[in-house]
């Protein structure tokens, strides 16, 4: 706000300066400049700062929606798919009619006194009546390739959704770790205050105070690291959404605190993956495209039947206007092409076999991915269960250690160990919780249903 108002004030200053310098003496001009400068300084410095608005809340669904609209990877995949659709129409054009119009003008002269001028015009219509399936095979191949690009777009969308989910949960996880670090600093500050009071009344030694000071410094260092890691996670989220970090918003928990979902049966997960994974569907489409390419190659020696119709006229100075028309049909039969078609057929047969092998390999990779992500998700659920119980036990142990120290029974070492154990248990529980969220998103992607 301050910078926006400074420019008009500077322009006003320049105008006043020009007016002042017209009919004023040098001393008067200098005095006027001083007054104007002081007034501008007071005006600018007295302006209130524009309020800093807090980042807008951001849910996971909203983050995914923004990423799907803005991320360059998805836009690139969409444009590749659009280009493949255009190629379908391109490959069908050989069967479309074609019209050409020609017009001419010429003037001739020489050493003789005579010269001549002539005009001509002609319009010709050509139509391929049939190429015995060659164009149809090309269209089928282009359609299959377009389908593969469509599945590539789906794959890009799922990859972006997974990155957004991982980054989103990463921000939430790190923010909770910052809360744990802040809580540890607060506990250490209270502990230091108690140690100083005990030392003041003579019930504790000086080493209790110095140890508490060291523990407080370590806790503050952990807090600084956690806060810096949070800023890095926000940068990661902005990149995953295709935005700058300051434009990505502030992630909120929302429905992310719901109960964990049960893992599906492995057979059901594999069945879903084999029918939904975009990698498999893309490989199937590329196999169909390879088969279409083989059909195109096999049609290389087939004839083509086309028709032509035209109308034109010629006129010159010495010859009156003459009209002409034509109708005809052409049958083109490739007799020998130097074995080009035979080699193309051999090449495309190999491409079909390659595409078939790629499809089988994709089935193996998908099966491996589903089984691994299933195991990872089950492990995450088990770790979450154990970590939650460990957090409860660590909290109970810390409460006991704190009370023992407050009444003068426990030691500073006992309190510090309990506090460190609590922070570690809380961090483990937080990490286990968001690991389970991320693991389920990865499981959904392995099944090909992420974002559906």
Can you describe this structure?
By secondary structure, the protein is of the alpha+beta class. The chain has two domains: 2-45, no CATH class; 57-94 and 142-300 and 339-447, Outer membrane efflux proteins (OEP). The chain is built from ten helices and six strands. The strands form two sheets. Strands 2-3-5-6 form a four-stranded antiparallel sheet, with no helix packed on it. Strands 1-4 form a two-stranded parallel sheet. Strand 5 and strand 6 (322-332) form a beta hairpin. Helix 1 (2-23) runs antiparallel to helix 2, helix 5 packs antiparallel against helix 10 (412-447) and helix 7 packs across helix 9. The chain is elongated and about 130 Å long. It starts with a helix and ends in a 5-residue tail after the last helix. The model is unreliable at 1-7 and 44-53 (pLDDT under 50).
Notable characteristics:
452 residues, alpha+beta, Outer membrane efflux proteins (OEP), 4-stranded antiparallel β-sheet, two-stranded parallel sheet, 10 helices, 69% helix, 12% strand, disordered N terminus
Layout of strands and helices, then pairs:
Blueprint: H1 2-23, H2 26-45, E1 57-58, H3 60-70, H4 72-91, E2 98-109, E3 115-130, H5 134-201, H6 206-241, E4 250-251, H7 266-276, H8 278-298, E5 304-316, E6 322-332, H9 340-406, H10 412-447
Parallel strand pairs: 1-4
Antiparallel strand pairs: 2-3, 3-5, 5-6
- Stretches where pLDDT is under 50 for at least 5 consecutive residues are 1-7, 44-53
Strand order of the largest sheet: 2-3-5-6
Number of domains: 2
CATH topology type of the largest domain: Outer membrane efflux proteins (OEP)
SSE order, one letter for each helix or strand: HHEHHEEHHEHHEEHH
Q: Tell me the strand percentage band.
A: 5-15%
As a whole number of angstroms, the C-alpha radius of gyration is 40 Å
């Amino acid at each position: 706000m301050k910078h926006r108002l400074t420019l008009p004030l500077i322009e006003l200053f320049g105008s006043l300066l020009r007016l002042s310098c017209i009919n004023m003496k040098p001393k008067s001009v200098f005095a006027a400049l001083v007054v104007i400068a002081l007034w501008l300084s007071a005006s600018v410095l007295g302006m209130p700062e524009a309020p800093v608005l807090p980042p807008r809340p951001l849910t996971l669904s909203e983050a995914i929606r923004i990423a799907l609209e803005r991320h360059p990877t998805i836009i690139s995949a969409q444009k590749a798919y659009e280009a493949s659709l255009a190629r379908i129409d391109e490959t069908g054009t050989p069967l479309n009619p074609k019209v050409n119009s020609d017009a001419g003008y010429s003037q001739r002269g020489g050493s003789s006194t005579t010269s001549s001028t002539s005009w001509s015009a002609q319009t010709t219509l050509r139509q391929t009546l049939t190429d015995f399936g060659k164009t149809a095979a090309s269209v089928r191949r282009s359609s299959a390739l377009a389908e593969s690009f469509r599945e590539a777009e789906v794959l890009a969308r799922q990859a972006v959704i997974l990155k957004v989910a991982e980054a989103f949960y990463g921000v939430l996880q790190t923010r909770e770790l910052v809360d744990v670090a802040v809580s540890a600093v607060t506990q250490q500050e209270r502990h230091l205050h108690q140690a100083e009071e005990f030392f003041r009344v003579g019930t504790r030694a000086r080493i209790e105070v110095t140890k508490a000071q060291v523990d407080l410094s370590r806790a503050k260092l952990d807090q600084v690291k956690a806060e810096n890691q949070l800023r890095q996670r926000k940068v990661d989220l902005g990149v995953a959404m295709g935005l700058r970090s300051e434009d990505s918003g502030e992630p909120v928990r929302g429905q992310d605190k719901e109960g964990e979902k049960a893992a599906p049966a492995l057979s059901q997960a594999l069945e879903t993956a084999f029918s939904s994974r975009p990698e498999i569907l893309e490989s199937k489409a590329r196999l169909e495209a390879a088969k279409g390419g083989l059909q195109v190659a096999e049609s290389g020696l087939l004839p083509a039947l086309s028709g032509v119709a035209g109308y034109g006229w010629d006129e010159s100075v010495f010859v009156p206007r003459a009209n002409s028309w034509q109708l005809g049909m052409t049958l083109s039969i490739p007799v020998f092409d130097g074995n080009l078609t035979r080699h193309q057929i051999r090449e495309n047969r190999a491409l079909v076999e390659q595409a078939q092998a790629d499809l089988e390999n994709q089935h193996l990779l998908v099966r491996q991915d589903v089984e691994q992500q299933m195991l990872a998700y089950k492990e995450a659920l088990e770790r979450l269960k154990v970590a939650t119980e460990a957090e409860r036990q660590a909290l109970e142990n810390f409460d006991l250690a704190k009370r023992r120290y407050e009444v003068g029974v426990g030691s500073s070492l006992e309190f510090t160990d309990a506090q460190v154990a609590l922070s570690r248990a809380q961090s483990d529980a937080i990490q286990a919780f968001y690991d389970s969220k991320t693991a389920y998103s990865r499981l959904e992607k392995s099944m090909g249903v992420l974002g559906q």
